[in-house]
UniProtKB/TrEMBL annotation:
<comment type="subunit">
    <text>A connexon is composed of a hexamer of connexins.</text>
</comment>
<feature type="domain" description="Connexin cysteine-rich">
    <location>
        <begin position="140"/>
        <end position="207"/>
    </location>
</feature>
<dbReference type="Pfam" id="PF00029">
    <property type="entry name" value="Connexin"/>
</dbReference>
<keyword id="KW-1003">Cell membrane</keyword>
<keyword id="KW-0472">Membrane</keyword>
<dbReference type="GO" id="GO:0005922">
    <property type="term" value="C:connexin complex"/>
</dbReference>
<dbReference type="InterPro" id="IPR038359">
    <property type="entry name" value="Connexin_N_sf"/>
</dbReference>
<keyword id="KW-0812">Transmembrane</keyword>
<keyword id="KW-0303">Gap junction</keyword>
<comment type="similarity">
    <text>Belongs to the connexin family.</text>
</comment>
<feature type="transmembrane region" description="Helical">
    <location>
        <begin position="127"/>
        <end position="152"/>
    </location>
</feature>
<dbReference type="InterPro" id="IPR013092">
    <property type="entry name" value="Connexin_N"/>
</dbReference>
<comment type="function">
    <text>One gap junction consists of a cluster of closely packed pairs of transmembrane channels, the connexons, through which materials of low MW diffuse from one cell to a neighboring cell.</text>
</comment>
<keyword id="KW-1133">Transmembrane helix</keyword>
<dbReference type="InterPro" id="IPR019570">
    <property type="entry name" value="Connexin_CCC"/>
</dbReference>
<feature type="domain" description="Connexin N-terminal">
    <location>
        <begin position="42"/>
        <end position="75"/>
    </location>
</feature>
<keyword id="KW-0965">Cell junction</keyword>
Length: 264
């Protein structure tokens, strides 16, 4: 698998990420992709060839290996890395869409005309796309952690397993190669995955907090609109102003009804 190609694509996402997103990207490549390529792949390189059972019955060893390892750890982690990195491309595609719209807008109205203050700034639809990518990555992380635990019943690999699947003549003992080393790598990859989940949740909460602060600044006329947390684009301001007008009209309507006395 060409991990350099994936790294090049994700590097473009880095400039649109928050601090939590940059840490997440570093954890993925340093603690997961690098460990996966340099060490983990070699440990599981010939896993089936070193899986031995105390029988000479043809096909028994292969059947037992397939029973206990329906999918190899290394292939499951490869799928996991692909699934958790793909949602980030939604952000890149959305920014590319904005830049194309900006280019067409300038071509039609002149170079000084601007459709967006900054096409890569997380406002409006891009904010929702970024948030959706975080939820998707978190969901995939938790799903693969569940699958790993469900398939193998535990994150710890046993030294010996017993198998009686056909065509084995009876209950046979099978031995896994490098069980301790594989267990260490499994716990390491699981820990890195949990850390990525925590970083994603922190980034989700951070984005919601920043957006809520902006909305609060716009709804409170006494606050300084030039404050860092009150910077918000015109599209979002229009939505908030409309919401505020509807709220004020509703409040005035309620007050009018309360102050109206019935005619005798």
């Amino acid at each position: 698998m060409d991990w350099k190609f994936l790294e090049g694509l994700l590097s473009g996402v880095n400039k649109y990420s928050t601090g939590f997103g940059r840490i997440w990207l570093s954890v993925v490549f340093v603690f997961r992709v690098l460990v996966f390529v340099v060490a983990a792949e070699r440990v599981w390189s010939d896993d089936q060839g070193h899986f031995e059972c105390n029988t000479r019955q043809p096909g028994c060893t292969n059947i037992c290996y397939d029973y206990f390892f329906p999918i190899s750890h290394i292939r499951l982690w490869a799928l996991q890395l692909i699934f958790i990195t793909c949602p980030s491309f939604m952000v890149v595609l959305h920014v590319a869409y904005r830049e194309e719209r900006e280019r067409k807008y300038k071509a039609k109205h002149g170079e000084d005309a601007r459709l967006y203050d900054n096409p890569g700034q997380k406002h409006g639809g891009l904010w929702w796309t970024y948030l959706l990518s975080l939820f998707t990555k978190t969901t995939f992380e938790m799903l693969f952690l569940y699958l790993l635990n469900y398939i193998y019943d535990s994150f710890k690999l046993p030294r010996k397993v017993q198998c009686d699947a056909s065509p084995c003549p009876n209950l046979v003992d099978c031995y896994i190669s490098r069980p301790t080393e594989k267990t260490v790598f499994t716990y390491f990859m699981v820990g890195a995955s949990v850390l990525c989940v925590v970083l994603n949740i922190c980034e989700i909460l951070y984005l919601i907090d920043v957006f809520a602060s902006k909305v609060f600044c716009c709804l409170r006329p006494g606050l300084n609109k030039n404050d860092h947390f009150c910077v918000i684009n015109s599209h979002e301001i229009n939505k908030i102003v409309i919401f505020r007008k509807k709220t004020l009209i509703s409040q005035m309507y309620v007050v009018t009804i309360k102050n109206t006395k019935p005619h005798l």
